[in-house]
Amino acid sequence: MATEKKDGSDRTRNWTFLVYPESAPADWIERLTEQQVPFIVSPLHDKDVTPTGEPKKAHWHVVLVFSSVKSYEQAKELTESVLGTIPERVKDIRAMVRYLTHIDYPSKAQYDRKDIMLCGGVDIDLDAYFLTKSDLKQIRREMFDFLITNEVTEICDLVDYAKQFRPEWYDQLVMSDYFLSQMITSRRHKKEQAPPTNATNVAKLVDEL
Predict the structure, then answer these.
(1) Backbone angles phi and psi of 102, in degrees to 5
(2) 16 with 63: CB under 8 angstroms?
(3) CB 87 within 8 A of CB 64
(4) Global pTM?
């Protein structure tokens, strides 16, 4: 049986597990809500099949969205309270939320994102998680244009601006990898050593992403 690691390396903010209608308490959503934890519930996955084509047991995917990091044991205490499966770490919250509908897996049964439930006061914008690749590319271009035009050299400045004036940028910044940070660091170093990067070359780089 898995145990909590003493070095704290098992701690993370987001955990996921499965709940089966046949074994869960009828009021399992209310039970989790009463424990004051924000969480996301997928549409009921009742059309999934195994690789050999056999129907899988109907189930819900549940994503626990804590405001601070929690250990495996802390997450497991919650999953056990509703007779769910053992919790697993969520490596990428955006990918996990999108998986609730199988939108990125066309060979799997597809589910309607309108049936995703946000519970316990979870504060996320589902629309931001389901932007198309074209939408994301356009947002990225807009951010690049902004940081070039305004000579932004610190990621904190871009984040502060986005949080106040461009929430769609902010959502992507906090969910993205370190690429934008690396880009800003690179521009700062470039500015110290040579003339600013030509905007045309940067635009070309963005087109190639």
Answers:
(1) 65, 25
(2) yes
(3) yes
(4) 0.66
What residues form DSSP beta bridges with 60?
A: 19
Q: Which residue has the tokens 């170093």?
A: 189
Instruction: Specify the 3-state DSSP secondary structure of 154.
Output: coil
Q: What type of residue sits at position 109? A: A
Structure tokens at 69: 């990091």
CB proximity list for 158: less than 8 A, separation 6 or greater: 143, 146, 147, 152, 169, 173, 180, 184
CA nearest to 183, candidates 138, 139, 144: 144
**pLDDT tens for each residue of 156-185:** 888 889 888 988 888 778 766 566 677 778
AA letter at 115: D
- Rounded distance between C-alpha atoms, residue 37 and residue 28, angstroms: 13
Q: Which residues 6+ apart lie within 8 Å of 157 measured at CB?
A: none
pLDDT of residue 205: 47
Query: Which amino acid type is present at position 18?
Result: L
Question: What would the two tokens of residue 53 be?
Answer: 């084509």
- Six token digits for residue 187: 């521009």
Q: How is residue 65 annotated by DSSP?
A: E
**Cα–Cα nearest to 67, from 96, 101, 38, 41:** 38
The total of other beta-carbon atoms located within 10 Å of residue 148's CB is 16
